[in-house]
Amino acid sequence: MIYVKFVAQRVSRYAAALFAPAIIVLFILAVYNFNSHPAAVHAPKWDTAHVQRDQELVIAAVRAHNTTWVQRELPEWGYAIYVADNPKAEGGVPKHKGREAMVYLTYIIDNYYNLPNLMVFLHGRRWQWHNDDPDWGKTVFATFRVGQGLIPHADTVATIKRLQLPYVRETGYVNLRCHWESNACPASIHTNPSERPELEEGQSKNDAEAYYAEVWKEMFPTDPLPQVVGQTCCAQFAVTKERVQRRKLEEYERIRNWLLHTPIRDSISGRILEYSWHSKFSNLRKRICMV
């Protein structure tokens, strides 16, 4: 009897060792499927129900993203969904390059004289690691990074529903990333890298820093080059029509032309613009940092 019990315990342990990884794999696949929807190929997709287009979501997606959450969860918003890697999409981007920047610039250029009063520029996935959520306990999705462990992902829907629209209309520009990590403030980029102080523990160098000064002068020739750029990631923000139209259409066309032809690799060219949007839309040209 004791031997049988011992064997049963051993079998249970082996079964647990075998099935636990399988359950984890199945969970990951389920979450991936939740965030992905290869059949959703449309760019841009316009919501024509809002005739006045008072407020609109501009979504930078790729074919692997499931964007059905936009209309289902945020019906009060108009939306334009661009699938950047779909070359057959009518009215899409001229080239899949520069990450979300190509989508944002294309939307502004194509709609410059017919912009809604308020726009929120977003990535295509609903669950993002860089979304801020005060209730992380309800997070249902996380990814693993070597050296960092599990990184929780928060819900874009919750971010939009908590967005204080009167504040956006008053200030003109709001970055949706509220976490002031050490890499962002007081300086995320030094335009003269030789002047950067020694990195502190937990900090990492911004890979766009080496190119920032040269690119700035090409994209924004009339703007003085800042010595430092203090801004959080991650290229998701709300902005008013008035702030976008402070800049002439030709300026956005020049920036997109640079993006189309630059030899700088895709991840860095997009990163340069990620840390430049605030200088175009905010009254604070150099830094947006909490005091």
Concise summary:
With 291 residues, the protein is α+β, with helices and mostly antiparallel strands. The chain has helices at residues 2-35, 68-73, 100-110, 156-162, 165-171, 209-219, 241-244, 249-261, 266-274, 277-281; strands at residues 45-46, 55-61, 78-83, 118-123, 127-128, 141-145, 149-155, 173-175, 189-190, 228-229, 237-240.
Q: What sequence of helices (H) and strands (E) makes up the elements?
A: HEEHEHEEEEHHEEHEEHHHH
Strand order of the largest sheet: 1-3-2-4-11-8
Low-confidence stretches: 20-34, 36-43, 46-52
Q: Which descriptor suits the 3D outline?
A: globular
Determine the number of helices (DSSP H or I, runs of at least 4 residues). 10
- The total count of strands amounts to 11
Helix content: 25-40%
Measured between the Cα atoms of the first and last residue, the distance is 71 Å
- Rg over CA atoms, rounded to whole Å, is 22 Å
Strand content: 15-25%
Structural class: alpha+beta
Mean pLDDT, nearest integer? Answer: 77
The major beta sheet can be summarized as: 6 strands, mixed
Name some characteristics of this structure.
single chain; 10 helices; three-stranded antiparallel β-sheet; 11 strands; six-stranded mixed β-sheet; 291 residues; alpha+beta
Question: Topology of this protein?
Answer:
Layout: H1 2-35, E1 45-46, E2 55-61, H2 68-73, E3 78-83, H3 100-110, E4 118-123, E5 127-128, E6 141-145, E7 149-155, H4 156-162, H5 165-171, E8 173-175, E9 189-190, H6 209-219, E10 228-229, E11 237-240, H7 241-244, H8 249-261, H9 266-274, H10 277-281
Parallel strand pairs: 2-3, 2-4
Antiparallel strand pairs: 1-3, 4-11, 5-7, 6-7, 8-11, 9-10
